[in-house]
Fold this protein.
Amino acid sequence: MLDTTCAYCMKGDLVAKFGYFACELETSMVYVFKEQSHPGRCIVAHKKHVSEFIDLTDEERDAYFADIAKVSRALHKAFHPDKVNYGAYGDTGCHLHFHLVPKYRDEVEWGSTFEMNSGKVLLTDAEYEEIARKIRENLD
């Protein structure tokens, strides 16, 4: 199902407000989150417009979580975080997606929940592409 008001379904300008396209996986689209106060932060959005992971079949859910694990491994290889946090939100934009947020012991938010949209660190398209490249190159 396609929702014409959904950034993840419509892609293009809607998702470009907060995400930079990195790659397409089996069940998902991967975007570098434009706010990069946590280097490597990205979004893994399911290709289907569903609100909850319980809306997927067991096979679809398992494949989606395999995509999330694949991206997490790539983040660990590319950015060497001390931990990756996973956030599944979407109270208003009900399209299943996870934020993968690399966390580093030397940052202010270590030991607490990451700030969702701090807007502190915005990059150029070339810098977003470099992060996307690192993710793509480290997918296994």
